[in-house]
Amino acid sequence: MNKQTLTLILSTVVVASAHAQTATGITAPTALSLGGVTQTDGWTDVSAVANPGYGAFPGTGAWPSAMQSNVGGDVRLVKVSNGTGGGPYAASGSIYYGGFSSTINNNGGTLAVQDSTVAANLKTVVLQIQIGEAWTYDLWNDAGAVLSYNGGSQSVTANFRSLFAKEFVGTVAMPTGQEDIFKNLHAFQWDLSSIAEPITDISISFTGVQHAQLYGLQLDQSSQVYTDAVPEPATMTVLAFGAMAAFARRRKKN
Q: I want to staple 67 with a disulfide (CB 3.0 to 4.6 A). Which of 77, 86, 90, 196 is the partner?
C-alpha cells in the first residue's frame, strides 16, 4: 500500500493538574495538518455548565436535542442508546457514563458524531476522543469507533487507530493489584477513497464504559487521501504539579 504521512501538529504543553475538567492538557484533541478541502469541528466543553439540561444521574433520560459542536458549529453529538442501567449525560465537568453497576468494563451507552455538511469530495476522516478511564477501561470492550455514511448503517471500522496521548490521574484497586488509570486521547482514521458514490453525510458512533468520562472530541475531514497511520507518541505520565512532555512518534496499525 502506498502511504502518505498524516502529520499531527502537537505542541509541548505545561499541565498544571491531571484533573482538568474540560478538554485541556496533553490529552486535548490537537490540530491536524491536512491538505485539500478541509473541515474541523470540535467539542471543547461538554459539561452541564456549557450544556444545561442534557440529563442527570444515572443518565437514562433522553437528551433534549443534539449537542452542537462549539468549534465549527455544524456537527451534532447525539445519544444513540443507553447502557446497562445508565447512560451518558452532561455532568459537572464532562459527559459522564452514569449507572449504579460495579461491574468492570460495563456498557455505559453509545454516542454518535453526525455531520450532514461534510467536506467536498470527502476522502479522509479523523475523529479524536478524549476520555477518562473507569477501572482501567474507557471504550467498551476496547472497541473502536465505527463510521456510516449517506444515511446507511455500514459501521465501517477505522483503517488506523492510535492511543495518541495519556495523562495519569490516579490508581485503582483491581484483581491484579493497584493499577494506574489515565485520561486518554484516542484517534481513529478512515480512508473513504474507495467509496464510489459521493459522500453527503457521515455518522461515527462509539460506546464508553459505565463511569467513564468524555471530555472532548474533534472531527477532521479532508478531500485528500491519507493512508498512513496516525502517529502515536510514547506513553506519558503527567505530574500533579505540572510537567513538560516531549513526544516521540511511533505508528500503530489497527
A: 77
The answer to whether the beta carbons of residues 250 and 13 sit under 8 Å apart is no
One-letter identity of residue 176? T
Q: What is the DSSP letter of 71?
A: B
Would you say residue 253 has pLDDT above 50? no
Cβ-based burial of 208 (10 A; exposed 0-12, middle 13-18, buried ≥19): buried
Please give the grid coordinates belonging to residue 172.
485503582
Grid cell for residue 117: 455538511
The string of pLDDT tens digits covering residues 123-157 is 999 999 999 999 999 999 999 999 999 999 999 99
- Alpha-carbon distances, residue 64 vs 75, 78, 89, 216, 219 (angstroms): 16, 10, 11, 20, 23
Look up cell 479524536; give the residue: 128
* Residue 247, all three cell numbers: 513526544
Identify which of 133, 82, 137, 130 has the alpha carbon closest to the alpha carbon of residue 105.
137
Predicted confidence (pLDDT) at residue 52 exceeds the cutoff of 90: yes
Q: H helices of 80-125, where?
A: none
pLDDT in tens, 98-116: 999 999 999 999 999 999 9
